[in-house]
Every structure is written in C-alpha cells, then in structure tokens.
Amino acid sequence: MRNRILASLLGVGAAAIAVAAQQAKPMVGKPGMLVTTALFNESQQYADWLQTAFDSIPADKYGFKPTPVQMTVGNVAEHLEFANYLLCTIFSGTPHPETAKDSLPDSVKALWPKDTLVARLRASFTFCKAAFDKVSDANLADSVATGAPFRAKKNVRARLVILFMTDLVDHYSQMANYMRAMGMIPPSSYPPPKK
Questions:
Q1: In 57-156, alpha helices (H)
Q2: What is the pLDDT of residues 101-150, one digit of tens each?
Q3: Could you count the other beta carbons within 10 Å of the beta carbon of residue 168?
Q4: pLDDT by residue (tens digit) across 37-59?
C-alpha cells in the first residue's frame, strides 16, 4: 500500500515539477525533497496570484458576489484564511494559535475591512509556507490525524498537502472569475514582465 502511495505521489510530483518549471523563480528540489518542492512551488504560484488578486480588488468591492447564492469577496478571503490554517496545521503538525477573533462567526469576519482580511490572509500564507519545512518526500506517505471536518480520523499527509494546493487552485479560479465579472484582469493574465 505504501509503495502504491509513493508511486502515485511521484506521478503527481512529476506533473507538478513540469508545471512548476514554467512558473517564475521556483525553488529547486534537493534530494529527498523533489516531490515536496514541486508541490510547494505550485502552491506558491497560486498563493501569490491570490494575494495579488485580493490586494488589487478595491475595498468597496469586497461585498461583491456574481450571484445571490455565491460567496462575497470578503467571504472567500476569510474562508481561504480558515482553510489554509486548517490544512497546513494538519499536514505540518504545527498548531496555529487562535485568538478570540478566530472564533467569531464567518458572517462577521467576512464583513471586516479589506486591510484586515488581506493581512490575515497574508499571515495564513506565511504560516503555510513555513508548514512546508515540516514536510519531506520521506514523510508524505505518513498517516496523520485529521478528524472533523474530514471523513476519516487519519489521512495520508500527501492528501492534505494536495488538498491545500488544489484548494488554492479552486479559489484562484473563483477569484479570477469574480475579477472578470468586475471588469478586472486576474493576475494570471497579466502580461509577462519585459526582459
């Protein structure tokens, strides 16, 4: 079972390495860190685009949602912060110390000013960047305790790392669509820098 998991991870890692190679300034993986570094590089590309998106959306648009049933920009920011801390705490084993503000309802947090939401989101990305220091190719197949909101009490660490990465991809796609609906250009569509 462990060998199948590692083989699957190497396949994912190879694909992620190919994608990461196309991104700006990816880290180069050291022996024993090739898959982990590829996953890190991919997650950081989307983290950078998300931070740029939230920075560039005007404060008066944080209540925007394309349809009544969708989340507002502010909801997406606070949800992403929560998900980052949840996933990165689990896959790294490093707890995120919570404050009284963290226990407020999502509906309250989504209404915080842009500066607060952006600062908190940025802090969650910094936390997740440090969380990758606890991950290596050797421990990607380890079982880690998850519990609620996950269906299983334990999951393979790689699953949480991949969930983190795919959650960023999902929310970046969401924000890119929101930005286009507001007449803005999402960061992934910016023209390449001149050389």
A1: 73-92, 106-109, 114-131
A2: 887 777 878 888 999 999 999 999 999 999 999 999 999 999 998 877 66
A3: 25
A4: 999 999 999 999 999 999 999 99
Fold of 2-186: Four Helix Bundle (Hemerythrin (Met), subunit A) (1.20.120)
Alpha-carbon dihedral of residues 23, 29, 34, 38, nearest 10 degrees?
-20
Q: What is the DSSP letter of 132?
A: G
Q: Is-contact 132 40, C-beta < 8 A?
A: yes
Domain regions of the chain by residue span: 2-186
pTM above 0.85, yes or no: no
DSSP per residue over 33-51, as a string?
-HHHHHHHHHHHHHHHHHH
For 115, other C-beta atoms within 10 Å of its C-beta total 9
The DSSP call for residue 143 is E
Residues 195 and 191: their CA atoms lie apart, in Å, by 12
Contacts of 161 by beta carbon, 8 Å cutoff, 6+ apart: 36, 39, 91, 135, 140
